[in-house]
Specification:
16 strands, single chain
Amino acid sequence: MRQLLAVLAYASAQEGTPKETIAASIMDIPLDLMLIIVLLAGLCFQTLTIIYLYYRLRQHRGEEDLHAPGQASPDCCEHPDAVVVRLGPDGAVKRMSPGAVRFFGNRGKKALGRNLAGSLVPTRESSGRDLAALWHSLVRGQDEVQTLECECMVEGRRRTWMRWTVRRVEPLALEPGVAGRDLLCLGSEITGDRDRSQKLAMAFMAVEQTLEGVCMVELDGTILYSNQAWADMHGFADREELVGENMSLFHSPEQMMEQVIPFNREVVVQGSNQGEIGHVHRDGSPFICWMTSSLIRDAQGEPMGYMGIARDITTAKESETELKQALARMTSLLDSTEDLIAITDRNARPLVYNKPFADLILQGLGLEMRPGVRPTQVMEVEEKAFWEGCEQRALEGEVVRFEHEIVFPNGETRVYQMSLNPVFCDDQVTGFSLFGRKVSEAGPVARTKTVINR
């Protein structure tokens, strides 16, 4: 070898063309050294050839095994991308189809001869436990074919979900004397399908567990689905008994004609609609729901049904009616007195006031009262400053009292005793109440004066 290196180094140092130099150097190599070089080159070539033939033979034997009669479905094995793995009775990977080798990459090549659990399937998770249970069931002869979904490890430490169809087969003819039967596994990746299924399952569980009633019907009103909240709302214990019935089951004939049919007509035209719709319980008693309905379309965009979401607002409507009645009674009571009464918010804007207060503001300041309008916005600068100072003191928690004199153009003079009282909620001032009472004589308190020159 030293002689060969010396000859090559000498040749590289000589002048002339590379071909002439190398040819001359080779001629100077001793015959015994040349023979050794040729033998070494031939040995390397034979070694590479043997390795190549070994892998080709193993692949060919695997393909013969997969295509053997009674071993697997020809349709799945003949496909070049078929992921097929053959396991021995001990769970070791014996053969892998070309599609399986491409799918698992280097991890799949390293799995040959090793147990499937630990090499391609994680052992410490549910996938490994499921695989072990299936393997024992098949090896013991309890079943001929089983299906399993498990997580597998592929090249690059990436994980993917696979659905395996596993069946028992006879041992390979090339392995005589092997006890037990092999397992032939045909796999397909289902990661995308599993993700979609999980999202659909989450959406379904959300609909199932929501407090609002959800119902889906065909265009003719035939019920396709309802959650339990919808059934409970209408007095039905089992929602399954609603499937196939008509949605008129939930409405009286008058409600159908006057509310439901016009409401659904708008859903078809606009794609959705919402509003108050009358319903009836199973016993026929009416109640009110806030309905939100949407049109369901097929893949071609054609209408195929409705989905309605209902919330029982009967209690809220009753409370609203009671509140309106109480407000009407309070307004009537406030309007029956000649005193000035108003209640403001945190920004001193009147929210509730009686008719004498509104009439005085209109007559004295020329301002038509509306909720949220501050009378100080039309006052003179000096008077406005006084009133805003009193309002600020009331909003800071102080009770403010003073007399206010108003002189009208006809010479009439009115004096009002005014009182601004802070209104508290949870120890916080949320506004103040204003009370004004007309008096004939002035008292010993501060007085302001408004002169109307109109």
